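It would be a great kindness if you could assist me with a short task in structural biology. I am sending you one protein, given as its amino acid sequence and as whole-number tokens for its backbone shapes. I would ask you to consider whether the tokens describe a fold that such a sequence might reasonably adopt. The full record is reproduced below for your convenience.
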Amino acid sequence: MFCDAVNLRFAEKAAAAGAQGIIAIGGGGGGHAGTINHLTLVAAIRRGFDGTIVMAGAVGSGADVRAAEIPGADPYMGTRFIATHESGAAPAYKEMLVQARSGDLLYTPNVNGVPASWLKPSMRSHGLDPENLPRRESGARGYAHLPEGVVPWSNLWSAGQGVEMIDAICPVAELVDQVEREYRAACAVPVFHARAR
């Protein structure tokens, strides 16, 4: 069993419940993400967990894949694969990801009650003002606070800061080849370790 953890408290709960792996979703991740830098979150989890740790959140290139390996994590790349030909996402969603940059994201609990990263252009396309979102009543269920027909993740779209790496909609095979080239280039760069003095 693998469990998402957006902070150390959730990671500790997952480990106590017997999780084999923890997906550390740090700041900059799409959907439900945390606010802690993913490198910090991975390191904090590793101190008390020997299982598999997956680093998620703003992983958008082969260099990021290499960066995940250094603290002993496996990478998880989400947003970047949405903008592929094989993805089942709506064509307008894919195109929005190509056009978006990290400044086009809003991290807020005011969509479905739990903090998540949302595309501001998607909000605007439904008549929502990202700077003045309707508030969800505490304990409320459903999406009555949103305009009729707006359903998070179905037609109100999320993304992570990995949008910075998306330039085009491409086949998965092409994206994988590109990430592999970026990864190999990153592995060729020496990693310098600070020496104790």
